Structures are given as structure tokens and as C-alpha cells.
Amino acid sequence: MVDRASLRCFLYFLTLHFNKVVVKKKGSEISKAMAYDEKDLVLERLKMSLSKTDTDLDQEKYLREATRHFYGIEKPLKYGPSVETLNDLIQALYAEFSTNYVNIEMVNHLMLSYKSNPKEWQKFAKFDRYKYTRNLVDTGNGKFNLMILCWGEGHGSTIHDHSDSHCFMKMLKGELREIRYAMPTTTTTGTAAEGNTSNTTSMESDLERHESLDEIGQRTMSLNDVAYINDNLGLHRVENTSHSDTAVSLHLYCPPFDSCSVFEKNSGQRVKCTMTFWSKHGQKVTYDK
């Protein structure tokens, strides 16, 4: 039997697909606008009918189910709202996450629409000499995490997953290379070894062994580019390949998570790790040792 979150997620993305098909079949701008009106009407009726019977639908479960259907968009939506400032982006995100039926395509649109302005994000951009840093900007009332990652020259992440969440990454400064890998198949399970990873702390268990990881693609991200990934699409590693320039990126995770799995490329070893922040809201975080 299909659970309610899965059914509602399928219906929602079916409606988005319906919208795109109608627009392709109609030529004029007026017809396109009418097509979007039709989509909005269908969505509104769908939400109204669902809310009458399923007011207890869990947003987190809905978002995790959506990772099975969403693959990201490359350009802003033609009829989506504009985002002028970082504060505008944050307020628009709060509005999108105010309902259980989050339009993840609109979230993608908002990240694409915002244009980097260093004056707005510099206070959150904290660098470390030896590793990249994760700097929390907003907790999204527990529904999403928005953060700025700062990459010194030559800094890079481990290969990692995203704990069954959506990950949007936008370039604010410089360039980053993203390398993607296919999600491996588990072969055996053991005990976690001691080890250090940037911005992560190893947990006591959950070491899994796989075959070596298969690279499935890579790209170079430049100013204002946005990448999207979830576990259905694979794993990735991000690195600043420059030895003379730093890089800054804006990340949105939903639902938020405080642990993920990191992988060793050649052996496929998997270790579950706790995520930490270098700073929160512009203030350095101190952790007890």
C-alpha cells in the first residue's frame, strides 16, 4: 500500500509536469499565462482536498519523498518571484516552508534568482586556515538550514551523502569543482575507525564497506551558478582547486540534518559523521573537547 506522503508527493509533481506540458503546447504569452493559472487552480484544489482529510501530513516525510521525484532546474522559473537581497531570499524561503506542501521547484527558483552581493553575506563568511568552514545563516524554524561555506585555497570536502535531504549549492564568490559519484551498494558492515574529516566528527559505529566508488560526472561552478543534489542522484565531493583564490558558496538543506555519511573513494568505506558549524549567525562556535 502506498503511504499518504508518497501519494501526495506524486500528485504534486504530476501537477508540475502537467503545467510544463500545457505551456509547451500553447504558443502565445497569453496562453502561457493561462496555463500557469490552470496549474495554480489545480494545485489549489489539490491542496484544499488534501487538507480536509490529511492535516497531519508531516512536512519532513513529504520532503524526503520528494527527493525521489525532483532532479533540479537549471534556470529560474519564468513566472516566479524575483529575489533582490539575501534577506528577501530568507523571507521567501520562510514563506515556502510555511506549508506542509513545499514547492521544492520554487525553492530551487529562489536560489537561482538571488544574485550574490558580498555586502550582504560577508558578515557570515568565516575562513579557517586549514579547512573549509560551515557557517550557519538561518535555521528556518527547524524546517531548513541556510549556511555559507568558505573554501580556502585548495580546500575540499570528503565524498558524502545528504541524509535523504535536498541540497542546493549556490556560488557567491570564486569557483568550485563538484565531482559526483554513484551511490554504492553495501557489501559488509563493521565498526567505525577513528578519523578526522573537515567539519565532521566520527561516531562510534556504522562503518560500511562497498566497492570502489564510480565517478559519474563533474562540473565547475562559477559565480551565481546553482547545483542540486540528493541521495537519489548520488554522492559528491566539492573542492576549491585554486591555489591563489578563495571561494564562498551558499547552501540550503531541507529537511535540515546534523549527520551524514562520508565515503573513501578507493575502498568505498562509509563512516557516519556528525556535522558541526564553524560559526552561527556570524559568531564563532566553541565546542567542548
TrEMBL record:
<feature type="region of interest" description="Disordered">
    <location>
        <begin position="186"/>
        <end position="206"/>
    </location>
</feature>
<feature type="binding site">
    <location>
        <position position="160"/>
    </location>
    <ligand>
        <name>Fe cation</name>
    </ligand>
</feature>
<keyword id="KW-0883">Thioether bond</keyword>
<keyword id="KW-0479">Metal-binding</keyword>
<comment type="pathway">
    <text>Organosulfur biosynthesis; taurine biosynthesis; hypotaurine from L-cysteine: step 1/2.</text>
</comment>
<keyword id="KW-0408">Iron</keyword>
<feature type="compositionally biased region" description="Low complexity">
    <location>
        <begin position="186"/>
        <end position="202"/>
    </location>
</feature>
<dbReference type="GO" id="GO:0019448">
    <property type="term" value="P:L-cysteine catabolic process"/>
</dbReference>
<comment type="similarity">
    <text>Belongs to the cysteine dioxygenase family.</text>
</comment>
<dbReference type="InterPro" id="IPR011051">
    <property type="entry name" value="RmlC_Cupin_sf"/>
</dbReference>
<feature type="cross-link" description="3'-(S-cysteinyl)-tyrosine (Cys-Tyr)">
    <location>
        <begin position="167"/>
        <end position="253"/>
    </location>
</feature>
<protein>
    <recommendedName>
        <fullName>Cysteine dioxygenase</fullName>
        <ecNumber>1.13.11.20</ecNumber>
    </recommendedName>
</protein>
<dbReference type="GO" id="GO:0008198">
    <property type="term" value="F:ferrous iron binding"/>
</dbReference>
<feature type="binding site">
    <location>
        <position position="236"/>
    </location>
    <ligand>
        <name>Fe cation</name>
    </ligand>
</feature>
<feature type="binding site">
    <location>
        <position position="162"/>
    </location>
    <ligand>
        <name>Fe cation</name>
    </ligand>
</feature>
<dbReference type="InterPro" id="IPR010300">
    <property type="entry name" value="CDO_1"/>
</dbReference>
<keyword id="KW-0560">Oxidoreductase</keyword>
<dbReference type="GO" id="GO:0042412">
    <property type="term" value="P:taurine biosynthetic process"/>
</dbReference>
<dbReference type="InterPro" id="IPR014710">
    <property type="entry name" value="RmlC-like_jellyroll"/>
</dbReference>
<keyword id="KW-0223">Dioxygenase</keyword>
<dbReference type="Pfam" id="PF05995">
    <property type="entry name" value="CDO_I"/>
</dbReference>
<dbReference type="GO" id="GO:0017172">
    <property type="term" value="F:cysteine dioxygenase activity"/>
</dbReference>
